[in-house]
Amino acid sequence: MMADLHHTPTALCCCRKSMPVSGARCVGDSSWPSAAPGPGSPRCPLVDVASASNFRCFQLQHFHLDLRLNFAVKEMSGWLVLDLVPVQSGVHTLVLDSHPSLLIQSIDCKVPGGQEEPASLTYRVDPFTDYGSSLNISLPTAAVKPGRLIQITVRYTTTDGPAIWWLDSELTCGQSRPLVFTQGHSVCNRSFFPCFDTPAVKSTYTATVRVPDGVTVLMSASRSSYSKEDRVFQFSMEFPVPSYLVALVAGDLQHVDIGPRSRVWAEPCLLSCAVKKLGGSVEHWLGVAEELFGPYLWGRCDIVFLPPSFPIVAMENPCLTFIIASILESSEFLLIDVIHEIAHGWFGNAVTNATWEEMWLSEGLATYAQRRITTEAYGEAFTCLETAVRLDALHRQLRLLGDNNPVSKLHVKFESGVNPSTLMNLFTYEKGFCFVSYLSQLCRDVRRFDCFLRDYISQFKFRSVVAQDLIDFFLTYFPELKDAAVAQREGLEFERWLSGCGPPLCEPDLSAGGSLIQPVQDLCDLWRTSEPPDLQTLLTFDLSAWSTFQIVLFLDRMLDYSPLPHAVMVSLSDCYSSLFDGLNAEVQIRWLQMVVRNSFYPDLPRVRAFLHKHTSRMYTVPLYEDLVAGVMKCVAVEIFYQTQRRLHPNLRRTLQQILFQTSTPATNQNGPALPNSPSTSPPSSTQDVNVSA
């Protein structure tokens, strides 16, 4: 997943007492229970505080969705069938994660192959957290026996929950037909269908989706078919996945094959641009990844580009990556985003963090894998430059939050009620990356570490793991390192890496990127003076020949130096603003943040033009927050009223909160309050994190 890290939500993460919970089967366990699993048996977390379900009492073998999409009333209706095997005796209740936006109509139970008619079940919906509820289903005692399969059918209708985003035609790229998509990460899919909404549980699934004429449906599934006569799409995911990776998009979508196992999907008006940008690169990147980490396990590697209302940058839904179309402006950011999501095919999707408290097991490892791929494909210097941009952002966030803030831990313990989505921050990605890089350095051979990761995937594929599983496997794989007690090396203890606050204990050597990074710093040093540098000196720096990441690094570091003297801003604008006008939005937004933070009124028309053009969260929220924080709030209000009809309702509410300092929780369209949903504005303490991928 590539979150919008211009603004990374943070949360107060409180330690919790361990809760005694009876044992249950973990995904992939060969035996149950296991008091002390070895390096080949994943450890199951005692509890997932983000799930109300009693997932430890059952083995979920498979589930099926049968849905009808109604664009006129923005509603999905149908049923869910769960194939469950109780693993304990005396279990009389099934508890699923749900959401107030799900309207439950009926629930029944049957034993496959039995003679009895399905039994109608009683149920109760209880409050759980701001982001969900618990669906408590009373099970028939006679039918429920350990080891015997039962089928639970839940008939329901969705309204406007946090997982489901209905777009009117005006909010799509083509502005001709409406579109709907789902976004399940981290705990949103409980508003899509009742489920064990925890990454500790994986299963296969199938789906039947009925739609109006002219609508194409895609899902994160390995196989699909379509009956034109019935307007019915059929999907099958033959590999086990956690609930958050079940995704759907439906609208006016077309495709072009760009490789033997990949195609690009988009609205017709975007398709040729997307194909031109990606070309045959996806197959090349897949091939590099397979050389490093072993076979790609998912069959298809398709990509769908979504309108600017998509709330994050990209999402690694298996077989079908979702990416915001806005990123097509920047070829380098697009490259990084797609490669990162490809890396998730191994790290995050095949082997998944069993609890959201250790999200770095997905994002940190995927970031490391992404950089191994870019190093092999584009060289070490390019990778070091991109890493420098991100590590700069990490340290910027640390300065804002403080070294002792608990969100800077890799293993973050949090209380029930804290939305795991609020833990999507740069520490998850970059501090996790630094720890994995440190493990690689301990091996003294990056190729040997590649082999370790390949065997790690082979050992744990389609399972969910905790950090100790990775560490145990690492120390077993490299017995000489275990004998040398590297896990207890003073100042670099593994436990300190995982549970300590603050910056990474060490960072990778980026000197191989010096030829790209040093000119950026040299130019920054020229501009840091109280007077503008002389023109002759500046002519030695040709920014038109620089890469996007070099210019982004330059502007990010100049933002760190703001406020700047007015004369310096005048000179910067004279030298670069026309150049930046012709570059992509990743460059433009950083320059415009400098304009706003330095109250540089001559370039204010550029801010207006940018916010009239761009309607995605990643390019609007940062500028609005800067406008409000400075002396230009009236400008922000004026632009908002001029553009609000072209903004998604969620983003519109977020900007209203920023502009008018309202405390009303954001809602997903007309649904219940969702104070921790992606639609809410993050706290101002992170507004200076200038990185979006």
TrEMBL record:
UniProt-recorded Gene Ontology molecular function terms: metalloaminopeptidase activity; zinc ion binding
Pfam families: Leuk-A4-hydro_C, Peptidase_M1, Peptidase_M1_N
Annotated keywords: Hydrolase, Metal-binding, Metalloprotease, Protease, Zinc
Domain of life: Eukaryota
Residue ranges occupied by any Peptidase M1 leukotriene A4 hydrolase/aminopeptidase C-terminal domain in the UniProt entry: 515-659
Active-site feature positions: E341 (proton acceptor), Y429 (proton donor)
One Gene Ontology term from the biological process aspect of the record: proteolysis
Annotated positions binding Zn(2+): H340, H344, E363
Cofactor note as given: Binds 1 zinc ion per subunit.
Cofactor(s) named in the record: Zn(2+)
Residue ranges, annotated region (Disordered): 665-693
Low complexity compositional bias, start-end: 677-686
Sequence similarity: Belongs to the peptidase M1 family.
Protein name, entry field: Peptidase M1 leukotriene A4 hydrolase/aminopeptidase C-terminal domain-containing protein
Organism: Anabas testudineus
